[in-house]
Design a protein that fits this description.
The protein has helices at residues 2-67, 73-98, 110-125, 141-162, 191-195, 203-212, and strands at residues 128-133, 166-174, 177-184, 215-221, 227-234. By secondary structure, it is an alpha+beta fold. Helix 1 (2-67) packs antiparallel against helix 2 and helix 4 runs antiparallel to helix 6 (203-212). The longest helix is centred in the N-terminal third of the chain and has 66 residues, at 2-67. One of its GO terms (cellular component) is membrane.
């Protein structure tokens, strides 16, 4: 009698709780899927901004420079070679995005990729970059991609916003922290722009990329003029 009725009610309650738990798990899984889809869309948006959009900007600038060459045949040939290279890079990046594969060529290591990035930047802009690439050891590819993307965005800012004539790029490791520093001798950046997610400098995208791997970004104007950007990742915690 009483025992059987109690057991029946307990069984029904357990069944109800199990059904609620199953439903909650389903809702949580759906939320995770939606969050993952949103994160992926944001990642692709950042990839498009960091790669194809910047390559197209370079093509426009090179084409404009070519129009101003006049009778400078040698200079025009140099520009055409650069246009071809940048266009090929843009095509490679587009194919990589479509194929959902890695979009940054870091096969030779981060230092090698940064060296190539700096060489291309100097050729395109005539802005001299002082580089100091210390040995940082083997890094997970994920960290290399994030740091290289930060370098690309930082140099794009030097080109588009700083009015600089010289810049510097340094990579180092100390006490387990990997630091990427990009500085210039340009006009500097205001505190509001450095903190804003909508400043047009791509800083929020860099912060988001770094946050995904436990990193941080510091941006400031230098006392003697110019801007310094420091990306830091605690590699020893990974």
């Amino acid at each position: 009698g009483v025992w059987f009725t109690t057991e029946m009610r307990a069984g029904e309650e357990n069944a109800r709780l199990l059904a609620e738990l199953t439903a909650a798990q389903g809702q949580l899984a759906a939320m995770h899927r939606e969050t993952g889809a949103t994160a992926e869309r944001e990642r692709l948006a950042r990839e498009l901004h960091d790669t194809i959009a910047q390559n197209l900007t370079s093509l426009v600038m090179l084409a404009q420079r070519g129009q101003n060459r006049g009778t400078d045949g040698a200079g025009m040939r140099d520009d055409l070679e650069l246009i071809e290279q940048v266009a090929r890079d843009a095509l490679t990046e587009a194919r990589a995005l479509v194929a959902a594969t890695a979009t940054v060529p870091v096969d030779g290591g981060l230092a090698s990729a940064l060296t190539r990035l700096v060489a291309t930047f100097e050729r395109e802009t005539r802005i001299e970059i002082e580089t100091c690439l210390d040995e940082v050891g083997a890094l997970p590819r994920e960290l290399e991609v994030v740091l290289l993307r930060c370098a690309q965005e930082a140099l794009a800012n030097v080109r588009k916003h700083s009015g600089a004539s010289r810049a510097r790029l340094a990579l180092g490791r100390e006490a387990g922290a990997i630091t990427l520093t990009v500085g210039d001798d340009g006009i500097g950046i205001g505190a509001d722009d450095a903190a804003s997610a909508h400043s047009g400098f791509g800083l929020e995208g860099m912060r988001q990329r770094l946050a995904l791997v436990g990193g941080t970004l510091r941006v400031a104007s230098l006392a003697g003029g110019g801007t310094e950007l420091v990306a830091t990742i605690r590699a020893n915690e990974r």
